[in-house]
Amino acid sequence: MVIKNRKANGVRWFACCFLVVFLVVACLNSSFSYAENTASKRILFISSYSPSFPTFFLQIDGLKSELDDGRNVLDVEFMDTKRFPTEENLNRFYNNMKFKLAELPPYDIVTVSDDDGLNFVMKNKNELFPGTPIVFMGINNIDNAKKYSEDPLVTGV
Fold first, then answer.
1. What is the pLDDT of residues 122-154, one digit of tens each?
2. Rounded CA gap, 93 and 87, in Å?
3. Which residues contact 46 (CB under 8 A, 6 or more apart)?
4. Are 46 and 110 in contact (CB under 8 A)?
5. Letter string b/e over residues 66-84, b meaning 16 or more CB atoms within 10 A of that residue's CB
6. For residues 44 and 41, what is the distance between their CA atoms, to the nearest angstrom?
7. Phi then psi dihedrals of residue 77, to 5 deg
8. 21, 27, 23, 49: which is closest to 117 by C-alpha?
9. Residue 42: phi, psi to the nearest 5?
10. What does each of the 157 residues of the chain score in pLDDT, given as a tens digit?
11. Angle at which helices 87-103 and 114-128 pack, to 10 degrees?
12. Greatest extent of the chain over all pairs of C-alpha atoms, in Å
């Protein structure tokens, strides 16, 4: 019975990832004019955990299946909050992101996975990601997801 529940949860997670991918594509299509189709788009994916998290590669595969057309750039940053669920880790991640974002061209869209990533991005979006569309996936706190989705630049599942 436990195996069936895990398998069902995996299927649900996979379905959610694909739904998010379609939302990301919809946001990209509405955010970018068709005249710019030859230009590359910069996409940041913030993973709440690390590559060792069981669904990480499913998330990446889902994003790549819709966004990897040879023109787009997908960068991945790891919060690693499963292994390091501390305020110190969040502060270090914030400082690291602040440094990197100051050195890199701005992103066209930010995608995040899980509650920790969404909470981080929403807390810091005005400073780190001003005016950037945000797409989230795999959120457990439905109330937060609904509240954050009231922002016209934020959507997800």
1. 999 999 999 999 999 989 999 999 999 999 999
2. 10
3. 76, 77, 79, 110, 111, 112, 113, 117, 120, 121
4. yes
5. bbeeeebeeeebbbbbeee
6. 10
7. -125, 140
8. 49
9. -100, 120
10. 444 555 555 545 444 444 444 444 444 444 444 434 556 899 999 998 888 787 887 888 888 888 777 889 999 999 999 899 999 999 999 999 999 999 999 999 999 999 999 999 999 999 999 999 999 998 999 999 999 999 999 999 8
11. 50
12. 52
Residues whose CB is less than 8 angstroms from the CB of residue 151 and which lie 6 or more positions away in sequence, other chains included: 134
Which residue type, as a one-letter code, is found at position 94?
A: Y
Q: Residue 50, class by beta-carbon neighbours within 10 Å (0-12 exposed, 13-18 middle, 19+ buried)?
A: middle
Residues, the chain: 157
Q: Which token pair is 45? A: 């994916």
Under DSSP, the state recorded for 34 is: G
Nearest in space to 10 (alpha carbons), one of 145, 138, 114: 138
- All residues at 6 or more sequence positions from 66 whose CB lies less than 8 Å from its CB, including other chains: 21, 22, 24, 25
Cβ–Cβ < 8 Å for 67, 34: no
CA separation, residue 23 to residues 81, 86, 114 (Å) = 25, 31, 16
